Amino acid sequence: MGEQIAETRMRRPVITARAAATFEPVGRSVASARTFVRDTLQGWGLTDIVDDAVVLTSELVTNAVVHSGTAADVVCVRAETGARIEVTDRYPERELPLQTTSRPISNPDREGGRGLLLCAALASRWGVEYTATHKQVWFQLEFPDRLAGTRSAGPALPAEALPVTDARVRVAVTQIDRTGLISAWNDDAQELFGYAAEQIIGKPLTDLAAWPHTPGTGTGVAEALQLSRWEGSYGIRGADGRVIPVYASHLRVRDADGDPSTVCLLVRERERAVLQSPQRAPGADAADSAERGPAADAFEVSIGSPAPDDLDGLLQRTVERARDMLDGDAAYLLLATDDETELEVRASTGLTSARQRFARVPVEAGTGRYGSARMPAVHEDLSIVPGAVPLLANTGLRSVVTVPLKVEGRLTGSLGVASESAGRYSNEEALRLQFAADRIALAVERARLTELERLRRNSLSFLVEASDLLAGTLDRDQTLALMAQMTVPTLANWCAVYTVADPASDPELSYVLHEDEERIDGLKALLTKIEPPEQVRTGGALLWTAPSQAAHAAALRTSLRGLSLGDAARPSSGPSASLATASAVGGETVVLPLVARNRVIGMLTLGKSTDGHFRQENLELAEDLSRRAALALDNARLYSERTAISQSLQRSLLPPELPDVTGVEVEVIYRAAGEGNEVGGDFYDLFPIRDGAYGFAIGDVCGTGPEAAAVTGLARHALRLLAREGFGGPAVLERLNTAILDEGARSRFLTLLYGELWPQEDGSAELKVVCAGHPLPLRLRQDGSVEPAAEPQPLLGVMEDLELYEQTVTLDPGDVLLCVTDGVTERREGARMLGDDGLVEVLTTCTGLTAGAVASRVLRAVERFAAQPPSDDMAILAMRVPERHDA
């Protein structure tokens, strides 16, 4: 048993680093958790797995803090073989979605519950652990096997299958210093290239290298010499002027002084197996290449070895080498879509700008179909069959040879070379081009799949960030701005959002954004003048040509008008502004419907500038974004409507204005807690009863929302009606108590301070008050003493047959009567509470202040008592009888 335990311990991964954090159950915690995991893994140098870890953490923390509503503990553990992320919540009884025959697995496209599905898709290992108090979901991502300097060991092969070399393999060794100059040159280099060491040392390598490099599309010699490790093919110009194809291996090193330099090992291209890593699988192809000689791989030599993720560089170099190999005037390369029904332009050379990248043509059927994609084809004269190659229509090119790119029999693309001369190509050129296409097809497919995977991960990260941003606001205008800012310039050059108030309303232009801020006003003016796009429910992006047509028409009219006026009278900003707007919207424009809760609430319009086209991947990403944005926009609309209704109802429950009371200063401060979407339960009132008499009240209904609002409205209006009918204070409250109880299940108990105020001729004021379960009113005398001005009595809405009584209070000149709701006295900071004693202490400092100053000082004291915003409504009513000299 002891040996088994020891063996188990030895097999456990060794933890080399650990980081942990706890996130509160609020929406912003999701972004904080992503930042925590990203910073932790990047700090450990694990950049290869950061994106997957961030996406998975985002989903799992969302499940914990949003759906479960509990805090989330996130732990990052780094072991020898991978990184493990653990997310723990306090809701262990949540359902685990398992795939069984009786219950289908959840839809991965829904808004929530995708965390475990993503774990299964992206993680090396994952699991769920339950205890009585929590649930933990963990996943592990393995480190990629990319150790520098490793080589793969090939199997033992018979002698006839080994690569063929010369009698002596020469490996040229040269060293390049930090400035790009050759500092070392061995004997094999002299034998291979014909230069003696004294002729070459001190010269730049770029003087010798025949580098197949198109600026901006791949790695050049200067860049390659700066990389820590690089392998690839290029040519070296020998002493006799001929270009010698070589295979090179570069290694960046530092000398004893710490200065960096690059060691270059070079062999003949046909002997690349000596240096290449991983080792090529030799076989019949090796023997064939030996028979064909050094020039057999000329096409692949000129392409070189691009980086795995440099698809654009590989495609651009391919079309340029294909054009040069067949001495053509133009060349192009198209890649097939996943369903092989369309071909997409990805690289071209020698064609006009109108042949844009990412334009698509159908393969099998339809207008402008590409009928020669699956087999090699030679078109001797396109003027005879003008529609044979739609991409070359109206280009002046006459003859073209096209060949397919295939991997395992599946069409992956098409490569074409064209010439301005008719009859330029024959079957011999088609075979040469097909041979070149076969040699590059697999590399292109690998690079394409790498690009697709990168785009998929980037799209997923983009949607996660977009969902988080959209969920972080309920403001309509801010939601519109976020929709536009997330699409420009990531998906489009400009964006316009139309909103629809109701099904019978026309779309309204609500927001416009262009990547060039100077174009926004012109774009907005253009879109205002044209009819908005039609409302559509169908998914997908629909083309909309009206903006580009209107912009070009306006630019043409402005230019003609300027010409007719002459240069002297031409407006300085007219033609240029119109032409700039036409250029800004001159490309493709698409419209995506914003559908939320089975209703079209708007349209998201995306546009390209100057003949630009959208990639299908970007359109699909825009569709996903539009669905999330539509729901966020509708939520903002509903929230705004609810807030407006709540605020309107809250205003209706408070008096529109306070009457002027002769001889008495009155000040009221009311503060509603929350975000404005709930009606508060606190209220106040001051109203004339008859000549010289005023009624006042301050109350607090239990709870908030519509039920509390109903009792508040009943209380305020009943008080006024009963008081003006001549009932005294106890009778008013007893009848109000009966009315509240008559509400049955909708009733709420109510604390209420009600009184009647009579200013006296001698400058004092007489009050009769009834305090039904409410915080007692406080009387501040001129000498600074504070005392309760009433006795507590039962609250309303609880029991029948109340027997209430009123108490008489006389306010002498300079006295203050302060009435508050429990939002003041129950203000908390941790375990501390302001309380009645704290309020008395504040009031003792208010001697000699006006009623307004007393109310303001109490409010400041309440706000400063705690750092957090108040969580309860507050009402403060202060009445003061001024002294004789005040009047």
Automatic annotation (TrEMBL):
Domain PAS: 176-203
Keywords: Hydrolase
SMART domains: GAF, PAS, PP2C_SIG
Pfam family, one: GAF_3
Protein origin, superkingdom: Bacteria
Gene3D superfamilies referenced in this protein's UniProt entry, alphabetically: 3.30.450.40, Histidine kinase-like ATPase, C-terminal domain (3.30.565.10), PAS domain (3.30.450.20), PPM-type phosphatase domain (3.60.40.10)
InterPro entries, A to Z: Bact_Sigma-Reg, GAF, GAF-like_dom_sf, HATPase_C_sf, HATPase_dom, PAS, PAS-like_dom_sf, PAS_fold
The name this protein goes by in its record: SpoIIE family protein phosphatase
Species annotation: Streptomyces milbemycinicus
